Structure formats: structure tokens, C-alpha cells
Amino acid sequence: MSSVTVRVPAKVNVQLSVGPLREDGYHDLVNVFHAVSIFDEVVAKESESITVTVEGNWADRVPLDDENLAIQAARALAKHAGRTYGVALVIKKAIPVAGGMAGGSADAAGALVACNELWGLGLPFEDLMEIAGDLGSDVPFSMLGGTAVGIGRGEQLSELPTGGQFHWVFAVAEGGLSTATVYAECDRLRAATSAEIPWPQLSDPLLEALGSGDARKLGAYLTNDLQPAALKLRPQLAHTLEAGREHGALGAIVSGSGPTCAFLATDAAHADQLATALSTTNVTRTAIPAHGPVPGAVVV
Ligand SMILES: C[C@](O)(CO)[C@H](O)COP(=O)(O)OP(=O)(O)OC[C@H]1O[C@@H](n2ccc(N)nc2=O)[C@H](O)[C@@H]1O
Ligand SMILES: Nc1ncnc2c1ncn2[C@@H]1O[C@H](COP(=O)(O)OP(=O)(O)OP(=O)(O)O)[C@@H](O)[C@H]1O
Predict the structure, then answer these.
(1) Which ipTM did the prediction report?
(2) How far is Cα 130 from Cα 156, in angstroms, rounded to an integer?
(3) Is any ligand 2 atom within 6 A of the Cβ of residue 69?
(4) Overall pTM > 0.80
């Protein structure tokens, strides 16, 4: 096989409950991931060495060296297989960069699946999931897709049933936010109050809303403990969230560590209207309609 193409979705977190800071610098989470129809493509072609090029939206903001998560994934897979392999990776980018939608994680998951195929390793999904968890907390979910709850760092996943499709709009912000900085700001805001940090619990009404496919209920139960930190670091996101609510969004939330904002729509037509309305305001230049859940990393 001389070339393999894998399609990988973005994610939004419909519940992100953040526990206390752990000794290893991470936080225990209850992280309800939902994969949405904004996709990066990772193409893996035969090559002597491991390289990456990036095309498409926001390509100039993606590193091309060992910082690139797709390169790290290819190297980790070759190490796991115990051999020296080469691959020329091409990332066709549609997921906002540093936007809280797991774009880098998607590319890492895509590279794992594509190289497993290109190099004829035939590793089972469970092995790839283990390598994925070492690459980053969000990478296992990018492999799995659908809707799932992640505990621990977010890497220990259980699939969740959903009763239908949900329709979303994602308002892309100018410039990204660093995930580590947003978690640190969350800790700083918490330290400034004497309130005890509750141990994260999966929300029963959220589960019910997902299971019944009821967008109105889901909109009411969206939560993100990182949102206050993202708003503190990027105060103008409050206007973005407000603009979505004014245009009839059933729910408005910062996506993960932000700064992308996610809006839940009543149906596909409403999502298109909302996207058009938001892109004519001054809160965002790019508003992308999408639906979920969609599958994780798949060879196309
Ligand atoms: C915000 C989310 O996107 C929600 O899904 C994730 O929790 C972040 O996942 P990610 O980008 O894959 O993050 P990682 O690459 O594993 O970690 C980046 C940094 O985020 C912080 N981090 C991440 C996950 C976690 N459970 N607790 C943390 O405190 C740590 O400072 C870590 O150094
Ligand atoms: N393949 C990649 N695509 C995008 N960014 C990458 C990639 N590899 C490494 N990065 C680096 O990772 C940083 C975070 O990018 P990414 O798009 O993964 O953020 P994110 O969507 O906020 O992540 P998450 O939602 O998982 O916290 C970028 O600033 C970039 O320097």
C-alpha cells in the first residue's frame, strides 16, 4: 500500500467537570466528549523518514517539527513496533488550531490509524488506544468518536448512547488559547475562593438528554468548568456566547479550553441560520455548522 487516508473528527465537551489538581500536574475529570462533523484528513505516504506537511485552514499555525502531534504519533507507533519506519504525513486541516476542539489530537489519532495500515502492522484498536493515551488526554477520544465519557485525565473512556443527531454551530475565535494556561487559570480562580472543589460526577440529566436526543434538554445541561478561566483570559468570548443566545441557540458554551464557542441548534436548518447570523456579527469571522455524534478515526 503506497498511501492511506484517515478522516478524524473534532470534539466538543458537553460536560467538562474538573477535579482538584493532581500531583502529576493533571486534573481528574468527568469529561463527556461528543465528536462533530468538522474533519481533518491525515494522508500517510511511503517515505524514508518521518515528515509532515499541513494544508488548508490555519495551516500556518501548525508546527512541522517534532512538536507536531502527528509526528509524535508516528514515532510512538514505530517505537511500539520496535522498528525504524518512515512516512510522509500530509494533514488537511479543517479543525481550528488551539481552539479547544482537539485538532492536534485528531491528527495524532489519524496518524496512528494511517501508519498502522501503511506499515502493515495490524495492531488491534486496544493497542493503538494505549499509545493514544500516552500522546495526550484527548487522543483516545479522537480515535473512538461518537459520544463518550472520559475519566482520569479524560483518557479512560466509556461510550455513551445518544438518541439522535444534534446540530451545532462553532464560532472560531481569532488566535488560540493554550490548554495548560486555561487549566492553570482555572486553578488560580479556584485558589482565590475558599470553596471546596467537588469531586466530578457524571450529570444524570445530561445523560438523559443525550439518550433521548432532546436538544432542548441538552442545551440546558451543557457545563464546562474551564469556561470561567477561558472567559477571564479572553473576556470578549462573553459577547460571542451572548450573540448565539440572542440568535436562539438552545445552549451556548466554550468548547473545552476554548476559545471556540459552541452553540446548540434546534435542527440543521436552524444551525445554518445561526451560522449565517453569527458570521454577520462582529463576534466571529467564521461560524461553522456541524452535527454529532460522528465516528472517530476511520480509513477512507
Ligand atoms: C480541555 C480538554 O481538551 C477537554 O477535552 C482536555 O482536557 C485537554 O486535553 P489535551 O489537549 O489532550 O491535553 P494534554 O496534552 O494531555 O495536556 C496538556 C495540559 O493540559 C493540562 N491538563 C490536561 C488534561 C487534564 N485532565 N488535566 C490537565 O490539567 C495539563 O496542564 C497538561 O500539561
Ligand atoms: N497536528 C497539529 N495540529 C494542530 N496543532 C498542533 C498539531 N501538533 C501540534 N500542535 C500544537 O498544539 C497546540 C494546540 O493545538 P490543538 O489544535 O490541538 O489545540 P486544542 O484543539 O485547543 O486542543 P484540545 O482541545 O485537545 O485541548 C497548537 O498551538 C500547536 O502548536
Answers:
(1) 0.97
(2) 10
(3) yes
(4) yes
